[in-house]
Amino acid sequence: MRTTIKELENKIKLLNEMTKNPLKTWKKIDGVYKAQIGNYFLYQAYGGCQIHQITTEGGGVRTVITGFHSKSDLWNLLDTYINGVMDCKINLVKTLTDNQKLTFYKGA
Q1: Is the pTM of this model over 0.85?
Q2: φ and ψ at 36, to 5 degrees?
Q3: Cα–Cα nearest to 25, from 48, 58, 50
Q4: Could you state, in order of their start, the residue ranges of all structural domains in the chain?
Q5: What is the DSSP annotation of 12-69?
Q6: Which site in 40, 47, 85, 93 is 20 to 30 Å from 104, CA atoms measured?
Q7: Which residues, 6+ apart, have CB-to-CB distance to 51 below 8 Å?
Q8: What is the pLDDT of residue 86?
Q9: 79 Cβ partners below 8 Å, 6+ apart?
Protein backbone atom coordinates (compact mmCIF):
# COMPACT_ATOMS: atom_id res chain seq x y z
CA MET A 1 0.00 0.00 0.00
CA ARG A 2 1.22 3.46 -0.84
CA THR A 3 1.59 5.90 2.07
CA THR A 4 0.65 9.53 1.46
CA ILE A 5 1.73 12.75 3.18
CA LYS A 6 -1.87 13.23 4.37
CA GLU A 7 -1.83 9.80 6.06
CA LEU A 8 1.43 10.66 7.83
CA GLU A 9 0.02 14.04 8.92
CA ASN A 10 -3.09 12.30 10.33
CA LYS A 11 -0.92 9.86 12.30
CA ILE A 12 1.14 12.77 13.64
CA LYS A 13 -2.09 14.52 14.64
CA LEU A 14 -3.01 11.37 16.61
CA LEU A 15 0.40 11.49 18.33
CA ASN A 16 -0.14 15.16 19.27
CA GLU A 17 -3.60 14.33 20.65
CA MET A 18 -2.30 11.32 22.62
CA THR A 19 0.46 13.39 24.20
CA LYS A 20 -1.79 16.43 24.73
CA ASN A 21 0.54 18.59 22.66
CA PRO A 22 -0.61 21.48 20.46
CA LEU A 23 -2.09 20.42 17.11
CA LYS A 24 -0.69 23.46 15.28
CA THR A 25 3.03 24.08 14.87
CA TRP A 26 2.74 27.89 14.88
CA LYS A 27 0.23 30.22 16.53
CA LYS A 28 -0.20 33.97 16.08
CA ILE A 29 -0.07 35.68 19.48
CA ASP A 30 -0.32 39.48 19.65
CA GLY A 31 0.53 39.72 15.96
CA VAL A 32 3.65 37.56 16.30
CA TYR A 33 3.93 33.92 15.30
CA LYS A 34 5.23 31.67 18.07
CA ALA A 35 6.10 28.01 17.78
CA GLN A 36 3.93 25.74 19.92
CA ILE A 37 6.28 23.84 22.22
CA GLY A 38 5.72 20.09 22.18
CA ASN A 39 4.07 19.94 18.74
CA TYR A 40 5.16 17.03 16.54
CA PHE A 41 5.25 17.73 12.81
CA LEU A 42 6.37 16.25 9.51
CA TYR A 43 9.59 17.61 8.01
CA GLN A 44 10.52 16.88 4.41
CA ALA A 45 13.88 17.37 2.68
CA TYR A 46 16.32 15.52 0.44
CA GLY A 47 13.53 13.32 -0.92
CA GLY A 48 12.71 11.90 2.52
CA CYS A 49 10.72 12.59 5.68
CA GLN A 50 11.43 13.01 9.39
CA ILE A 51 9.38 13.72 12.51
CA HIS A 52 10.40 16.83 14.45
CA GLN A 53 9.15 18.22 17.74
CA ILE A 54 9.11 21.91 18.66
CA THR A 55 11.30 22.66 21.70
CA THR A 56 11.37 26.49 21.87
CA GLU A 57 9.00 29.38 21.15
CA GLY A 58 11.42 30.52 18.47
CA GLY A 59 10.97 27.29 16.52
CA GLY A 60 13.86 25.17 17.76
CA VAL A 61 13.30 21.47 17.14
CA ARG A 62 14.54 18.03 18.03
CA THR A 63 14.50 15.17 15.56
CA VAL A 64 12.27 12.48 17.03
CA ILE A 65 13.02 9.77 14.47
CA THR A 66 16.51 10.35 13.06
CA GLY A 67 17.43 10.03 9.41
CA PHE A 68 15.38 10.76 6.32
CA HIS A 69 12.97 7.97 5.41
CA SER A 70 10.52 7.09 2.69
CA LYS A 71 6.89 7.75 3.59
CA SER A 72 6.13 4.05 4.04
CA ASP A 73 9.21 3.47 6.23
CA LEU A 74 8.37 6.54 8.33
CA TRP A 75 4.79 5.23 8.73
CA ASN A 76 6.16 2.03 10.29
CA LEU A 77 8.66 3.89 12.48
CA LEU A 78 5.92 6.27 13.63
CA ASP A 79 3.71 3.29 14.51
CA THR A 80 6.52 1.95 16.69
CA TYR A 81 7.02 5.35 18.35
CA ILE A 82 3.29 5.68 19.07
CA ASN A 83 3.20 2.18 20.55
CA GLY A 84 6.09 3.16 22.83
CA VAL A 85 4.22 6.28 23.96
CA MET A 86 1.12 4.16 24.67
CA ASP A 87 3.20 1.66 26.68
CA CYS A 88 4.69 4.49 28.77
CA LYS A 89 1.24 5.94 29.46
CA ILE A 90 -0.12 2.52 30.46
CA ASN A 91 2.84 1.87 32.77
CA LEU A 92 2.52 5.33 34.33
CA VAL A 93 -1.17 4.73 35.05
CA LYS A 94 -0.37 1.31 36.56
CA THR A 95 2.32 2.88 38.72
CA LEU A 96 0.02 5.66 39.92
CA THR A 97 -2.75 3.14 40.55
CA ASP A 98 -0.37 1.15 42.75
CA ASN A 99 0.13 4.35 44.81
CA GLN A 100 3.85 4.46 44.15
CA LYS A 101 5.17 7.96 44.47
CA LEU A 102 6.93 9.30 41.39
CA THR A 103 9.09 12.34 41.98
CA PHE A 104 9.05 13.41 38.32
CA TYR A 105 5.24 13.27 37.99
CA LYS A 106 3.49 16.49 38.97
CA GLY A 107 -0.02 15.53 37.87
CA ALA A 108 -2.34 17.29 35.49
Answers
A1: no
A2: -95, 105
A3: 58
A4: 5-97
A5: HHHHHHHTT--SSSEEEETTEEEE-TT-EEEEEETTEEEEEEE-STT--EEEEEEEEE
A6: 40
A7: 12, 40, 41, 42, 43, 63, 64, 65, 74, 78, 81
A8: 87
A9: 11
